[in-house]
């Protein structure tokens, strides 16, 4: 109601541009060891996308590859496609410390005619790997040099590796019409293959968007992977106290520490946020036990906190509901925090014409943190042999954060071995 009332008042004034607002939410996921080191291996997917979502070839997650590019690969490299491997899609990837998950961009307008808009989002440190609707422009991933003899000597898998240890900057562009409220009500947003999370992101109180090819949706969607430090340092000492330090260069407006361990859910909310260079020490005793499964107090706290950062109540609920299972039903210790706006604009620079009268961007940092006692358990598990090693191997091979944990365990093993040698 508040957004609609503001727009109605503004649209009655004389203006050179159409009046509308842009709202965005999304997540940066990281994993750090108890010593605060950001770990790589974040290229694995957790939530499968509908088959109609687009992606770079080799980075599909539910969608079909572009067959023109598949034929091009066969002609130039001697294979029908990038060979299969474990990870995101089928392309080998290295050095990923951040998974950018499901940013969605909403539009609010009471204009009586559709607004033609051009939207560009950059990604400083990563690739925008998946998106919907179809983009009008954007980065192209680097390709290997074609084989001199594709049939006899196909391009090796190693040549396809996308290495984020090297500087990378991606971007995406859309050329869209922001539909009027009447057109939005009449639009068919249903698509065969819709999944629950995709539908949870739709908001009936926002304006639908449509491309020149007729693809229509309630929002612009994109995902990505990359290597950079979002700016929250998390460490856990030998006494299992979580320490959080704000190195973003701005004020973090909202923060929640959350954990599921041995089936017990516990959390604490910091509504005052965290000032620039501020430090929080959160002992385990500060994490209060709550109802396992669905916690209404946690739901209400998180949605209220996100709404205070600028989202509408419906948008905040949409974000929490979209990510509820991943955020609040998965074991582990994690910190949720809202990036300062200046950090968001630096990492994801946004350009749009005509300009909105208001831009709200709420990107949530999801910082997964490994506790020392967890690390000791994983280290012991990694040392098992024979049939006893199966659980560890399965975890590393299949868990979303298995590659990151394996990296941390390898580091701990190296330290232990070094100590034994001295």
UniProtKB/TrEMBL annotation:
<keyword id="KW-0732">Signal</keyword>
<feature type="signal peptide">
    <location>
        <begin position="1"/>
        <end position="16"/>
    </location>
</feature>
<protein>
    <recommendedName>
        <fullName>DUF2931 family protein</fullName>
    </recommendedName>
</protein>
């Amino acid at each position: 109601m508040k957004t609609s009332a503001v727009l109605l008042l503004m649209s009655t004034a004389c203006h050179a541009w159409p009046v509308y607002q842009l709202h965005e939410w999304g997540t940066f996921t990281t994993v750090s060891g108890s010593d605060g080191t950001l770990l790589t291996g974040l290229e694995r997917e957790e939530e499968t996308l509908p088959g109609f979502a687009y992606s770079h070839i080799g980075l599909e997650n539910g969608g079909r590859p572009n067959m023109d590019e598949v034929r091009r690969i066969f002609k130039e490299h001697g294979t029908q496609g990038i060979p299969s491997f474990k990870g995101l899609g089928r392309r080998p990837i290295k050095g990923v410390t951040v998974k950018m998950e499901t940013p969605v961009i909403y539009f609010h307008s009471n204009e009586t005619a559709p607004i033609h808009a051009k939207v560009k989002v950059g990604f400083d440190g990563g690739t925008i790997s998946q998106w919907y609707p179809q983009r009008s422009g954007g980065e192209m991933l680097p390709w290997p040099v074609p084989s001199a003899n594709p049939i006899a000597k196909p391009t090796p898998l190693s040549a396809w590796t996308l290495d984020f240890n090297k500087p990378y900057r991606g971007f995406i562009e859309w050329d869209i019409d922001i539909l009027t409220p009447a057109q939005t009500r009449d639009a068919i947003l249903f698509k065969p293959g819709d999944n629950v999370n995709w539908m949870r992101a739709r908001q009936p109180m926002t304006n639908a968007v449509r491309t020149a090819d007729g693809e229509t949706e309630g929002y612009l969607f994109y995902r990505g992977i990359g290597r950079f430090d979002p700016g929250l340092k998390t460490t856990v000492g030998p006494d299992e106290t979580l320490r959080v330090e704000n190195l973003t260069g701005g004020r973090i407006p909202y923060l929640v520490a959350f954990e599921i361990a041995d089936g017990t859910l516990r959390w604490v909310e910091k509504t005052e946020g965290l000032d620039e260079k501020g430090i929080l020490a959160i002992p385990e005793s500060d994490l209060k036990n709550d109802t396992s499964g669905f916690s209404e107090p946690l739901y209400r706290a998180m949605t209220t906190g996100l709404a205070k950062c600028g989202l509408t109540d419906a948008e905040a609920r949409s974000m929490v509901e979209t990510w509820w299972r991943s955020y609040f039903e998965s074991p582990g210790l994690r910190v949720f925090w809202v990036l300062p706006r200046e950090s968001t604009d630096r990492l994801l620079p946004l350009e749009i014409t005509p300009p909105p009268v208001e831009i709200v961007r709420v990107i949530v940092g999801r910082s997964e943190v490994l506790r020392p006692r967890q690390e000791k358990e994983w280290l012991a598990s990694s040392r098992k042999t024979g049939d006893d090693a199966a659980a560890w191997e399965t975890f590393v091979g299949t868990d979303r954060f298995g590659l990151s944990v394996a990296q941390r365990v390898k580091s701990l093993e190296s330290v232990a071995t070094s100590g034994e040698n001295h």
